[in-house]
Amino acid sequence: MTWDQLNLLSLDGIVDWAESQSWCQAMAACAQDAEWHSEGDVWTHTKLVLGELPKLDEWPSLTPHERTVLTYTALFHDVAKPLTTEVDAETGRVRSPKHAVKGEHVARAVLRDLGCDLTTREEIARLVRYHGRPAFLLERDQPTHEVVRMSWLVNNRLLYLFALADTRGRDTDSMTRPEENLHYWKLMAEEAGCYEQPYPFATEHARFTFFRQREPNLHYVPHEVFACTATLIAGLPGSGKDTWLSRNRSGLPVVSLDEIRGDLGLEPTDDQGRVAQAAQERCRELLRSGASFAFNATNTMRQTRGRWLSLFADYNARIEIVYLEPPLETLLRQNNARSNSVPEPVIRKLAQRCEPPTWIECHSLVTSEGKGQ
């Protein structure tokens, strides 16, 4: 089954397809806490949520794309509960810590294998990750900041509508009040001007600064004079990063981990400490001189990427991220054609852990899922 074929199916057809998949069968075998989910196992709840979507008052006004995104968000929102569920030995209560975080990765992997386009896949994966946020808005110290942050990661309208379906897709009587709480998410997002679009910051640097501050000020507009532009290239091995740079940023000096590794005579499997140290020094030299440059490495993990972005920001660089992700078959073919190819199992493992960049990390973001070189 491919993504295009799935999108020709009815909701019942999608459910039938899902029930043939191992991740769905694991959901059907996964118990939930009776106080929060008296309806039963994870798959029973998921089917109830799917059934609630067409009952939403807003459903007829949604575009086909929005309906697709909500349908697959519902399908995958609890997909990682079988991977995270545990029973408290003292109370007997069932809990599934961080199931939404792991669910993002599972949803991304399944959708990638189906051939889902990058934009739609990431919309769904991020909604899976953050699907529980609206229910806890009133517990936040700065609830307005919460809806503003989310508006640059997901569509707050779709997040709110999914939260309604998620809450209604259960049998527990005590769950009526949380639905009332969900409406505050809509009201606060509407008031902040970010219910159906990202929050309109005064400048891109105001947005960038907001997401980096420990105590962010929503209305702070920082002085906007940059020392240079640092372009961080991200993508799996074989995604075409060198080719993109040669075609689009040919005049920039490039700090490349692959080149540094070669200069040092190291293999990708060797200790990479010396490589990172040398790359940091080369970046600092360029940053101190005020020269714009590109940093070329895999950069597919948010935490790893963040260390380099923090370095660039410390030198007052304007930060551009370019993320490349051709179809996996194309990527593997391009990798095999390289002189320093990476073993396919390593690439597949990196793909499973990949976290594509978002707008909260940079001043500008370029994404490409072209056919490659």
Automatic annotation (TrEMBL):
InterPro entries xrefs: HD/PDEase_dom, HD_domain, P-loop_NTPase, tRNA_CCA-adding_enzyme
A Pfam family per the record: AAA_33
Nucleotide-binding in keyword set: yes
Signal peptide positions (record): none
Keywords: Nucleotide-binding
One function term, GO molecular function aspect: nucleotide binding
All residue ranges annotated as the HD domain in the record: 64-143
Gene3D superfamilies noted in UniProt: cca-adding enzyme, domain 2, P-loop containing nucleotide triphosphate hydrolases
Protein name per Swiss-Prot or TrEMBL: HD domain protein
The organism of origin for this protein: Kolteria novifilia
